[in-house]
Design brief:
It is built from 10 helices and 8 strands. The protein has one domain: P-loop containing nucleotide triphosphate hydrolases (Rossmann fold, 3-Layer(aba) Sandwich), CATH 3.40.50. Strands 3-4-2-5-1-6-7-8 form an 8-stranded mixed beta sheet, with helices on both faces. The relative contact order is 0.20. By secondary structure, the chain is α/β, with parallel strands linked by helices. Helix 1 crosses helix 10 and helix 3 packs across helix 5.
């Protein structure tokens, strides 16, 4: 199963995905996390030692251009690049979790990185998973990744929403764009919820009740601010994580 998570910046999508990864690991699943956020910090969130030494694939410009088959001055590139070896070469593993960091994909003169994005999109769609394996994709904030199509091939898209009108607007836009690229299984997840009023606010604004609500937990916030592995706080939200995973099954 491949699950992507998205949402407006700062809503806590990386934290929720880290909790999902840890719970799935405890449930006996083999978990691969793909950090596709331009400002990756999943490694720190899940407690990888020396997280700063992990080089994002996107920083390896020459490798990506080589795989895309694009030559200088040419507008053409290979739409079916070879990526099999990249899946194993750039995974790191620690504490029973596997991690791959994609990083930011940009081209300074045009804002489009067609060749590089094609390599990454191909890499994601090449992932063939057994029932005991789960791939979790932590996407960049906002909606840009849907326009580039790098999210293609996922089974579920989770959109994290906090009780604010701007967060709801972003979530609704993500849902519309997901439909445009053929992702039908889109779910909302409420975060930083204080009370029933917050739950109702989200449900009314989204037009549907989120499949899970995560509380506004100060312990988790303090762990994030101190740069500590957030997954150490799983027990504080375990019932909510299980509720979320059960809804996807």
């Amino acid at each position: 199963m491949k699950i992507a998570i998205s949402g407006k910046g700062g809503v806590g999508k990386t934290t929720i995905m880290a909790f999902m990864a840890e719970q799935l690991k405890r449930d006996g699943k083999e978990v691969l996390i793909i950090d596709a956020d331009p400002s990756p910090h999943m490694a720190q969130t899940i407690g990888f030692d020396d997280s700063g030494s992990i080089t994002p694939i996107a920083d390896m410009k020459e490798l990506l251009i080589e795989r895309s088959g694009k030559t200088e001055g040419s507008p053409f590139y290979n739409i079916n690049p070879k990526v099999d070896d990249l899946l194993s070469r750039f995974m790191v593993e620690e504490n029973g979790l596997k991690l791959m960091v994609l990083g930011a994909i940009e081209t300074g003169d045009s804002g489009c990185a067609c060749a590089e994005s094609t390599v990454l999109k191909r890499m994601l769609t090449k992932l063939l998973l057994s029932p005991s394996q789960v791939a979790l994709l932590d996407m960049e904030a906002g909606v840009e990744h849907l326009g580039r199509g790098t999210i293609a091939g996922v089974d579920h898209l989770l959109t994290v929403v906090i009780p604010s009108k701007s967060s709801i607007r972003t979530a609704m836009k993500i849902k519309r764009l997901a439909a445009d690229v053929g992702i039908d299984s889109v779910y909302f997840v409420g975060n930083r919820v204080v009370d029933d009023e917050d739950k109702e606010f989200l449900s009314e604004g989204l037009g549907v009740r989120p499949i899970a609500f995560f509380p506004d937990n100060p312990v988790i916030g303090k762990a994030e601010r101190k740069g500590l592995p957030v997954i150490e706080q799983l027990d504080a939200v375990k019932e909510h994580v299980k509720e979320l995973l059960a809804a996807l099954k």
